[in-house]
Write a structure and sequence with these properties.
This protein has about 270 residues and is mainly beta. It folds into two domains: about 1-200, OB fold (Dihydrolipoamide Acetyltransferase, E2P) (Beta Barrel); about 220-260, Ribosomal protein L2, domain 3 (Irregular), CATH 4.10.950.10. Helix content is about 0%, strand content about 25%. Strands 9-16-10-13-14-15-17 form a seven-stranded antiparallel sheet, with no helix packed on it. Strands 7-6-5-8 form a four-stranded antiparallel sheet, with no helix packed on it. Strands 1-2 form a two-stranded antiparallel ribbon. The longest helix has 6 residues, at about 205-210.
């Protein structure tokens, strides 16, 4: 992926930086897609549970295989595709028995390459192995939290984690956030860094492009009335002299909300503070 900097012919193109997608532009493999209903951020009662969502271009969901359970069978990469449902690219692979599947595409992988899953696989970009078979210092992605659950960690564009070492039955993983944690060594991970690392460098350029992505405008709390937001009201521009909070009074300055004490024992060091 390379960055495409638009010339300032109009106000909307001034400063716009997009990705020139040198990937498959046709329709996805139909058997591996499903319809996707647009909820507009509303639940089954019609109440908004996720603000700022709505409209956007119609999408079909790609059924990506995060589990990689088909072991010891080579799969050839047919093409690398754009997926509107995620920041990373995906790749369509064809197994030796003719079955097709979608995987998260790692960086520096090409059409025609062969990949394989299983404990006896080579340490090569795109191959999927249990953590106890991967040497320390390797960059990995699509990491399972527990065996057979499917990849949960490091799936977005340009992300990866590093396998630091082994501690008994557990592998020590250093995440991109700076957190270091233990994961059972029989869980699987894929070698390499996730594709499309330039995703973070794009600049939307205009409000309309955000609307295509399903993102609606957001109103600042200080522009509201006191009944609508803790920052609302006051004479002139003021936030009432209080620290930033959400509409429900929850601190927006790093308040810890984690309450899962059951898995605290697996975290060796917390993520870096901002």
């Amino acid at each position: 992926m390379t960055l495409k900097i638009l010339k300032p012919y109009t106000k909307s193109t001034r400063g716009t930086v997009l990705l020139s997608r040198d990937v498959w532009r046709g329709k996805p493999h139909k058997a591996l897609t499903r319809g996707k209903k647009s909820t507009g951020g509303r639940n089954n009662f019609g109440r908004i549970t996720s603000r700022g969502k709505g409209s956007g271009h119609k999408k079909r969901y790609r059924l990506v295989d995060f589990q990689r359970n088909k072991e010891n069978m080579k799969a050839k990469i047919e093409r690398i595709e754009y997926d509107p449902n995620r920041s990373a690219n995906i790749m369509l692979v064809k197994y030796e028995d003719g079955q097709m599947s979608y995987f998260i595409a790692p960086n520096d992988i090409s059409v025609g390459d062969e990949i394989v899953s299983g404990p006896n696989s080579e340490i090569k970009i795109g191959n999927c192995l249990p953590l106890y078979k991967i040497p320390a210092g390797t960059q990995i992605h699509n990491i399972e939290m527990s065996p057979g659950s499917g990849g949960k960690i490091a799936r977005s564009a340009g992300s990866s984690a590093q396998l630091s070492g082994v501690d008994g039955l557990y592998s020590i993983i250093k995440l991109a956030s700076g957190e270091t944690r233990k994961i059972i060594s029989t869980a699987k991970a894929t070698i390499g860094i996730v594709s499309n690392p330039d995703q973070k460098n794009r600049k939307i350029g205009k409000a309309g492009r955000n609307r295509w992505l399903g993102k609606r405008p957001s109103v600042r709390g200080v522009a509201m009335n006191p009944v609508d937001h803790p920052h609302g009201g006051g004479e002139g521009k003021t936030s009432g002299g209080r620290s930033p909070v959400s509409p429900w009074g929850q601190s927006a300055k790093g308040l810890k909300t984690r309450k899962n004490k059951r898995t605290d024992k697996f975290i060796i060091s917390r993520r870096k503070k901002r």
